[in-house]
Write a structure and sequence with these properties.
The protein is an alpha+beta fold and about 210 residues long. It contains nine helices and nine strands. About 50% of the residues lie in helices and about 20% in strands. The two termini are about 30 Å apart.
Length: about 210
């Protein structure tokens, strides 16, 4: 009897779990734009996200952080031939390289799709004392008043901000609002209503979810 109950619960969990996919047309577009390795990277991300659907919060943070940190760091000038370009996740994964904002936002959007509360995730603008330059990481707050944990491409370990002597905080931002404002400033068209904007963000990031 216990075995039957366990099997029923397992089936129910698999049926109710959210799954992620990329449409074949989007995958072909990605491959045509960035090459076959880009399509492979995106498929690897989809596979990772599906494996994390029912994972613990800690596992989601670690695995997503590790996945994107494996992508090469390059400045906007080298990748996009611009001094400041905010790439979306598709562009970042497609190019297979990017700067600190690209890591932070790709991690943010992926964790948000994995149902980590957006209120717990913030764009953390700071100064890197190691490199003496402005830097951005993704901050995770267990509670609003807590010291955040930092998901950083410079340091693979997810540590509390108080343990990062090489990071001097400047300002914390709502990630969606900051990204939309930045790409609007770059001259790209952005939907005016927040609901339409969020739907548009999911579309440009290509990976969608279904129950």
């Amino acid at each position: 009897m216990q075995r039957v109950v366990w099997i029923v619960c397992l089936l129910a969990t698999s049926l109710w779990s959210k799954s992620f996919y990329i449409a074949e047309t989007d995958l072909r577009t990605l491959e045509a734009t960035y090459g076959t390795q880009a399509a492979t990277r995106m498929q690897m991300l989809v596979k990772l996200m599906n494996s994390l659907s029912d994972a613990s919060l800690k596992t989601k943070l670690i695995e997503v952080n590790d996945f994107f940190n494996a992508i090469a760091y390059k400045s906007d000038a080298k990748v996009w031939e611009q001094s400041d370009y905010w790439a979306n996740r598709t562009e970042f994964v497609g190019k297979g390289m990017g700067d600190c904002e690209d890591y932070a936002y790709a991690k943010y959007f992926t964790l948000a799709q994995l149902e980590v509360e957006k209120e717990q995730l913030r764009a953390f603008y700071c100064q890197s004392t190691t490199y003496n330059e402005a830097h951005m990481v993704l901050a995770f707050y267990s509670k609003k008043s807590d010291v955040p944990f930092l998901l950083d491409n410079y340091n693979p370990s997810i540590l509390p901000a108080t343990q990062r002597a090489d990071i001097k905080p400047i300002k914390v931002y709502n990630s969606d609002d900051l990204f939309l404002a930045k790409i609007k400033k770059m001259g790209k068209a952005v939907p005016e209503s927040k609901g339409d904007a969020l739907d548009w963000l999911e579309a440009i990031h290509m990976i969608r979810s279904r129950e």
